[in-house]
Amino acid sequence: MSKTTPVRQETAELAEITELSADDLALWSAVIVIIGDLFALFALLKARTEKDSSD
Q: For the residues of the chain, what is the DSSP string, one character each?
């Protein structure tokens, strides 16, 4: 039976917590894409109102 030292166990637990899974990365990328799409939508709406006000 092998014993792990508290430092090694703590390091292993920390690595497990900080490691991102594929699902985590997919979720973050989806959030970033949605935010980018919202900025694009707001830019289009702003350009539309500026065009209407200049006529």
A: -PPPPHHHHHHHHHHHHHPPPHHHHHHHHHHHHHHHHHHHHHHHHHHHHHHHHH-
Q: Model confidence over 1-50: pLDDT tens digits?
A: 556 677 787 777 776 777 889 999 999 999 999 999 999 999 999 999 98
Round to whole Å and give the CA distance between 45 and 31. Answer: 21
The encoded tokens of residue 41 equal 């939508």
pTM for this prediction: 0.61
Token couple for 48: 């539309």
Structure tokens at 46: 């702003």
